[in-house]
Specification:
Elements lengths: L4 H13 L3 E8 L5 H13 L3 E5 L4 E8 H11 L7 E4 L12
Antiparallel strand pairs: 1-3, 1-4, 2-3
GO molecular function: endopeptidase inhibitor activity
Family: Belongs to the protease inhibitor I9 family.
Keywords: Signal
Length: 100
Amino acid sequence: MKFPTLALALLAAAPSALATEKLYIVTFSNETPNSEVVAARDHLARNGCKITHEYTLIKGFAATCPEATMADYQVSAQSNKYKPTVEEDQVVTIWNGGSS
């Protein structure tokens, strides 16, 4: 029995389709040259990430990436002179802990 070509293609694509993607915020210190920020952005875009926002008040960007891609990037970026701060995007709220 032969599998149809489409079925084989879907099976081959399944692992990448199951990869968990998350939204990350990548920021750099003010001393970081713009070329370093652009290089980081381009590197992630070439490796399966989607840049969702580029910040103007701070040096950085937001990107949706597979967890494995971002983990690999964080390890490789640690040897860089201008180390980025990478955080998973999350909701921030203000709560004083008191009763109302």
